[in-house]
Design goal:
294 residues; membrane; elongated; cell membrane; mainly alpha; 13 helices; 0% strand
Length: 294
């Protein structure tokens, strides 16, 4: 060879290690079982699972077992990457401050998922109750079987089951259960129950119409979420753009972290840019949330 030999310096190794750590943290936080199952299907050959995917599943399961749902603590290792690269403690302080905020966001996200699961379960409860009624069971017995089969009401299900088993006020128990988040559809079940008892109208017919209405609402919610996927992608791109700018600056040799963390002008720019970034993300998320609520 006539050309000079390329030398890999220590800063390049540190940058590569930091990038790998950041990508690993991103995959742990954003990874889900569905993409992993899709990867297994794509990488399997003749029914044999890929060893790389299996190793990643084992690593992720061990991390989940160690964290035990406390994903917000990943803010600290992620913040340690710019702290090491920029040789400053400020990213670690920001990461520690982000832990309670991430905890709050994760709790709200979990509560929203549980609420949607309960709302979907009410539709399944109506379908199961209609099936039991058409099979010839009495309304109270059918309600007991449907509640045991769906298990979406939690503690409220025990009160409804007790009212149905011991001849209590079933509509009142259903209305009380409808006051919990995600179980609002039980108010319709209570109304159908009252009408069938008072006028002798068919309970299965009313519950069948209620089930159709709840399933139509679920389809509408899924369609709206699919339409807003592009807006959420824009929000994610807005959040990632500053990180991409820092990576590009480091690749060009500008050392942006040292400028931002070790100079007065850089600190002013960092604080101002961070505030503008947070305001922009909050504004965009609020617009998308308003569209989902509508």
């Amino acid at each position: 060879m006539t050309g000079g030999t390329a030398h890999i310096g220590i800063p390049d190794v540190v940058h590569a290690a930091a990038l790998c750590a950041a990508m690993a943290a991103w995959l742990v936080v954003m990874g889900r079982s569905r993409p992993l199952r899709r990867a297994r299907v794509l990488l399997t050959d003749g029914g044999e699972r890929s060893s790389a995917v299996e190793r990643w599943c084992g690593v992720r399961s061990r991390i989940e077992k160690r964290l035990r749902g406390r994903w917000e603590w990943l803010c600290l290792p992620v913040a340690s990457v710019p702290a090491v690269l920029g040789q400053s403690v400020l990213p670690l302080i920001a990461g520690a401050a982000a832990v309670p905020l991430a905890r709050r966001w994760l709790l709200r996200r979990r509560a929203r998922k549980e609420q949607e699961a309960r709302a979907n379960g009410v539709g399944d409860l109506c379908g199961a109750l209609v099936g039991e009624l058409r099979a010839g069971r009495e309304p109270g017995e059918a309600l007991l079987v449907a509640v045991r089969g769906t298990d979406v009401m939690g503690d409220a299900g025990f009160r409804v089951s007790a009212a149905a088993r011991f001849g209590g006020d079933v509509p009142r128990a259903l209305v009380q259960a409808a006051g919990e988040p995600g179980l609002e559809g039980l108010a319709g079940v209570a109304a159908c129950w009252r009408v069938s008892v008072g006028s002798g109208a068919g309970l299965a017919t009313g519950l069948g119409r209620l089930e159709s209405a709840l399933r139509a609402e679920r389809r509408q919610r899924d369609e709206l979420r699919a339409q807003l996927a592009g807006a959420w992608s824009t929000v994610v791109v807005l959040a990632v753009l500053p990180v991409i700018a820092l990576v590009l600056g480091a690749a060009l040799g500008a050392d942006p972290l040292r400028v931002l963390l070790h100079s007065t002008t850089g600190l002013v720019c960092l604080v101002t840019g961070g505030l503008l970034e947070v305001c922009g993300l909050f504004w965009a998320s609020r617009i998308v949330r308003a569209g989902e609520a509508g």
